[in-house]
Amino acid sequence: MFLASAVLASAQKNTPKSYIEQFKDDAIRIMHETGVPASIVLGVAMHESGCGNSTLAQHLNNQFGVKGGGGAVFYKRKKKVRTAYKRYDSVYESFQDFARIMTERSEFSGLAAKFTHFDYAGWAHGIQKRGYASSHKWSAQVLSIIKRYQLYSFDENPDDQPKDNPPTQLAQN
Fold first, then answer.
1. Which of 42, 89, 107, 130 has the fewest CB atoms within 10 Å, i.e. is most exposed?
2. Rounded to an integer, what distance in angstroms lies between the CA atom of residue 70 and that of residue 118?
3. What is the CATH number of the domain that holds 50?
4. Domain for residue 172, yes or no?
5. What is the mean pLDDT of residues 78-101?
6. Is the residue at 125 inside a domain?
7. What pLDDT sits at residue 11?
8. Above 60 in pLDDT, residue 168?
9. Is position 144 within any domain?
C-alpha cells in the first residue's frame, strides 16, 4: 500500500491552477512582446497540453503540439520514441514559438491587426477559422478554459497586477 502511494505522489500532475500560477508571467510577457493575449497563450496551452501533462509537454516542453524542427527523440517507459514534434528548451520558448506562429505565419498574421490583446474571443474564433485545429468545438473549448479560470484578467492592465497574486481569485479545479 505504501509503495502505491509513493508512486502516485511522484507522478503528481499539474492542476489548472498550478499551471496558471507557474506560467502566467510568461504569458503576460509574450503578450507585451507580440500582442497575442496572455489569455490566449495560456488557454490554448492548457487545452492543447492538458495543463502541461501531455507526453509532448512533459518530454519536449511542447505545449501546443507544434511539429517541425527536424524531429525529436525522447524516452517513454524506457522505450525510444521518435517524433515529428518540436522540442523546446523551456515552456517559455514554446510560448514564444506559438506567438511567432500567430504573428508571422501568413494564415494567422492578420489576427494581430484585426484584434487587440483585449479581444480574446476574437482571437480564439480567428485562430480556429484560419485552420489551427480541425475540431469545430476548438474555440468554444479554449474560451471555456479562459472563462472558467478567468484568464482574461491577465489581458487587462497587466503592468498594474502584483506578481505574487493573481488579479482575481482563480477557480478551483
1. 89
2. 35
3. 1.10.530.10
4. no
5. 93
6. yes
7. 55
8. no
9. yes
Q: Is the pLDDT of residue 150 over 70?
A: yes
DSSP string of 100-150? HHHHHSTTTTTHHHHS-TT-HHHHHHHHHHTTS-S-TTHHHHHHHHHHHTT
Contacts of 154 (CB under 8 A, 6+ apart): 24, 27, 28, 31, 38, 39, 42, 161, 167
Give the number of other CB atoms < 10 A from CB of residue 154. 27
How many helices (H) and strands (E) the chain has is answered by 8, 2
Domain interval for residue 121: 14-160
Using one digit for the tens of pLDDT, what is the confidence trace for 54-74?
999 999 999 999 998 777 888
**95 located within any domain:** yes
Q: Which residue type sits at 158? A: P
Confidence at residue 147, expressed as pLDDT on a 0 to 100 scale: 98
Rg, Å, the chain Cα set: 17
Q: Tell me how many domains the chain contains.
A: 1
For the full predicted model, state whether its pTM sits above 0.85: no
